[in-house]
Automatic annotation (TrEMBL):
Keywords: Oxidoreductase. This is Succinate-semialdehyde dehydrogenase (NADP(+)). The keyword Oxidoreductase applies. InterPro entries: Ald_DH/histidinol_DH, Ald_DH_C, Ald_DH_CS_CYS, Ald_DH_CS_GLU, Ald_DH_N, Aldehyde_DH_dom, Aldehyde_DH_Superfamily, Succ_semiAld_DH. Residues 18-469 form the Aldehyde dehydrogenase domain.
């Protein structure tokens, strides 16, 4: 490991005696570095400086902001191997997946460097002939974010890039479990020329303490959160007192539906990608499978064969496809869901074993029914419960029977069915004959208790801008 990886690990390290936060490799249970736990007074200082930096940044032409963001993008790409290595060491995902996340994360910086130049307002035909009306878009000011451990880079760039492009400053609290990736991309932003007070990472042993400051501070005008629905809902309440704008990217419970006219091999490929990426620890992971009667056995047989071929291990080793779960609590939860499903009547068609350390064998459960707890739970692990269905109408009711509404997937070769089903699914995103749907040009986000706001796409920058209406009278 050279350049950025070394630099980050060394810079971030402040020693175990300094009230530091230890960062642990989940594959080996060893400490790989430390980051400082900032005092709350330090975080208040960061916000003060960020406010000053934001005004100067917003005053610069969009083209200048775009140029610095482009340079940041280039440096992330140039350092992608090192960044991927840092991510695998602190998060556990296989190295190829980590590299994929770095490229995906960088794509938001590139996209929003371009969008910075396109924050158009409107001219509006006036109702009287002595007025002229127009709108302009302006940055909201200081923006803050709280991000999770499952995508340590992309969940930050998906917010930071549109915020900076819009002319905001941006303060993030990355997850304490995976902060090194965050510090590494921030270091690259500084190397690109982005001012230090404009983009800052802050951590404290108590995430609640940081959340309290972000939600209550009058100078923070926007909070963007990615994480669980439970914490998101709490943060919305906390932001109410200062009437802060919020965006919430929360939990999911994605149905993955295989109709009788589906290409079964493609459906199995999509199921593997959607379910087992990041060991099942993504908000858009297929969480429950619905397979139609006549193709049920064929799908299950092929799915079992494909899952049996997945290589589990330390993500830093070549060829590994499934890494460890993030911590012992996550493992305990996942094994608990398997045990509970078995007690409620499920059959283990493949897997189900505790592989030691933080590793769980990829698992397929059959004989699942809609009333089982696992169907309503965000599993966040490598477990695929499969439900049999016969009619489309019954299927839609079951697929929508969840508090969540983030991603959904289905496989069919019938055009009528594709439109009909896509329109009826109560989810923010629908993959049709596709198991991987996220990219920088499309709007990512949910409905119901999966949250609100959109990231990426032409909509993403609007989350960090306010519309100002100008009325020219006396003309
Ligand atoms: P989490 O427990 O909600 O934590 C997310 C972040 O919030 C972490 O930085 C955490 O800090 C912080 N946090 C926890 N409690 C807090 C509080 N009371 N006040 C302020 N901050 C607090 O979620 P997670 O387990 O890390 O992530 C998994 C969840 O994220 C899943 O539900 C998943 O679906 C969701 N997710 C959603 C999306 C999306 O785009 N919709 C994307 C990825 C993940 P520490 O961990 O450092 O304590």
């Amino acid at each position: 490991m050279d350049c950025i990886a070394n630099k980050t690990l060394l810079n971030a390290t402040c020693g175990p005696d300094d009230d530091a936060i230890a960062v642990i490799n989940p594959a080996t249970d060893t400490v790989i570095g430390y980051i400082p736990s900032l005092q709350t007074s330090d975080i208040h200082d960061v916000i003060e400086k960020s406010k000053v930096a934001q005004k100067l940044w917003a005053a610069r032409p969009a083209a200048e902001r775009a140029k610095l963001l482009t340079r940041w993008y280039e440096l992330v790409i140039e350092n992608s191997d090192d960044l991927a290595r840092i991510m695998t060491l602190e998060q556990g995902k296989p190295l190829t997946e980590a590299k994929g996340e770095i490229i995906y994360g960088a794509s938001f910086i590139q996209w929003f460097s371009e969008e910075a130049k396109r924050t158009y307002g409107d001219t509006i035909p006036a109702p009287t002939d002595n007025k002229r009306l127009m709108t302009i878009k302006q940055p909201v000011g200081v923006a803050a974010a709280i991000t999770p451990w499952n995508f340590p880079t992309a969940m930050i760039t998906r917010k930071a890039a549109p915020a900076l492009a819009a002319g905001c400053s941006f303060i993030t609290k990355p997850a304490n479990q995976t902060p090194l990736s965050a510090y590494a991309i921030t270091e690259l932003a500084y190397q690109a020329g982005i001012p230090q007070d404009l983009l800052v990472m802050v951590n404290n042993h108590s995430s609640v303490a940081v959340g309290d400051i972000f939600c209550s501070h009058p100078d923070i005008r926007k909070l963007s959160f990615t994480g669980s629905t439970q914490v998101g809902s709490q943060l919305i309440k906390q932001c109410a007192d200062s009437v802060k704008r919020t965006s919430m990217e929360l939990g999911g419970n994605a149905p993955f539906i295989v109709f009788d006219d589906a290409d079964i091999d493609e459906a199995v490929k999509g199921a593997i990608a959607s379910k087992f990426r990041n060991a099942g620890q993504t908000c858009v992971c297929a969480n429950r499978f619905y397979v139609q009667d006549s193709v049920y056995d064929q799908f299950v047989d092929k799915f079992v064969d494909a899952v049996a071929a997945l290589k589990v291990g330390n993500g830093i080793e070549p060829g590994v496809q499934i890494g460890p779960l993030v911590d012992s609590k996550a493992k305990e939860n996942v094994l608990g869901y398997i045990t509970q499903a078995k007690e409620q009547g499920a059959t283990v068609a493949y897997g189900g074993e505790d592989l030691g350390g933080l590793f769980v064998q990829p698992t397929i459960l059959t004989d699942i029914t809609q009333d089982m707890d696992i169907v309503q739970t965000e599993i966040f692990g490598p477990v695929a419960p499969i439900i049999r269905f016969s009619e489309d109408d019954e299927l839609i009711t079951k697929a929508n029977d969840t508090i969540y509404g983030l991603a959904s997937y289905f496989y069919t070769r019938t055009l009528n069915r594709a439109f009909h089903i896509a329109e009826q699914l109560e989810f923010g995103m629908v993959g049709i004959n596709e198991g991987i749907i996220s990219n920088e040009v499309a709007p990512f986000g949910g409905v119901k208790q999966s949250g609100f706001g959109r990231e990426g796409a032409k909509q993403g920058i609007d989350e960090y801008m306010s519309i100002k209406y100008l009325c020219f009278g006396g003309l």
